[in-house]
Hints:
Layout lengths: L1 H21 L12 E6 L2 E8 L5 E8 L6 E4 L4 E4 L14 E5 L3 E6 L2 E4 L12 E6 L6 E7 L10 E5 L10 E9 L2 E8 L2 E8 L7 E4 L3 E2 L3 E2 L3 E9 L2 E6 L2 E5 L4 E5 L7 E6 L2 E5 L3 E5 L4 E4 L2 E4 L4 E5 L7 E9 L7 E8 L9 E6 L6 E2 L17 E5 L2 E5 L15 E3 L7 E2 L17 E5 L5 E5 L4 E6 L2
Parallel strand pairs: 5-10, 16-21
Antiparallel strand pairs: 1-6, 2-3, 4-5, 7-8, 7-9, 9-10, 11-38, 12-13, 13-14, 14-15, 16-17, 18-19, 19-20, 20-21, 22-23, 23-24, 24-27, 25-26, 28-29, 29-30, 30-31, 32-33, 33-34, 34-35, 36-37, 37-38
Amino acid sequence: MRKILALITGLLFMTGMLVSCLESEEIELSSYAYILSFSINDIKTEIPSKTSAGKDTTLVRTTYGRYYTFAIDHVAGEVYNVDSLPKGTDVTHVTVNMGLNAGYAYYYQGDEAKIFSTEDSIDFTNPVRFTVFAADGEGSRSYLVRLNVHQTDVDSLVWTRVENNNFHGGRMTAEKMVQLRNQLMVFGEMDGVPTIMGGNLDGDFNYAKKEWPLMINKINHLLGVDYSSIVSHENAVYLLADGKLYSSIEGVNWTAESPERTFTSMLGVVDGKLYLNEGGTIVACDPYEWTTTNRVETLTHDWETVQTVDETLLPVNPSVVAMPLRTNTEIVRTTLIGTPHADAGKEVSIWTKLSTDPVWTYYSPVAGNDKGCPLLERLTVIGDNSKLYAFGGASKDGKLEAFEAIYTSTDGGLTWLKQKKQIGFPTELKGYNEPFACMKDATGTIWLQCSDGRLFCGRIGK
């Protein structure tokens, strides 16, 4: 404490002299104290390694500080980097640049208080408290500055087996997994019986089982369910049965939507609308569009004809991934990808749509492209951090085992790279070529359930 008082006393003395010298000019010094800007300089991290001959060596990795933006929260008194530094970055000797509106700042390193200088090498292993003093020496403000560092490697995928999830015996087939509000719901058939299982994502995951009465208003049985068509939107689940569109708010009782129309397949939810294939014509509607007539609210469906397509080119059981563009985060690219129609050839079917475009664009296969997405059984694609991740069962050509690898694409699905490190699956899944269901929930957690009830959750490191 004496060290701090000595520092402050010295600075106040200097400030007092400055004020006395300027009294004749009647300049009033500000009492406000703020951090206006904060940045870090490059950080060099030494990483132990070995040469090809097996000798010990050291690699030096540079983390370029100019690429990291810092948020300054004046209300909470916090300063932090928005994007985390790479895993393993040495933050024990960091030099920083800090812009102040006026005055000076001091900080603690252990029990020692120091007046801040851009030449200082500061240890940010733990958050560092900075106190900023105004030009008049009286006003002050405190900020807690922290450097966020990845705890896992970027693009690593860490899986956890969810034990004791109370999966109710039997084997699920034709599975589809969706999130409805805070519930993880799996639809399918268990030993031939239509079944729905769900668990609460807010706490310890615990399945509850229902055998679907699959009824519409508890009167007529719902037949010919296309399990691959099931999607969730807003507070309801939608599916196709015998070509008709149905909705449910809990997954048990179903209501017919636009019964006069017959659809070929469900494409998915894009920009808040349901997109469906109606015999070679892509149509869309807002399923939650209400109109008011004579003070009575009515749910109406105004169907929009989007475009006419060769429906043999549309994917079967598609994955729908929506992510903002790297170059303009206000524009969202939606990728529709899946197994091609039987008559469409041997290439994965990929369609894309920008939020600024009125129609979809088909990615025609490129001759000689050896970096295409492999054609896998039950092909599943998710998106995360501007990348597409594809995986599934065994490849159609028999060259790849089920769950052998994950493939990633950074160009919207044109080219794919096989991931050999950090990205993969639990060992027990390799070679598993049975039905499974997979989805990424609203928090970024990836859920994967096998037909025998094994449940895994994973998260991609950022």
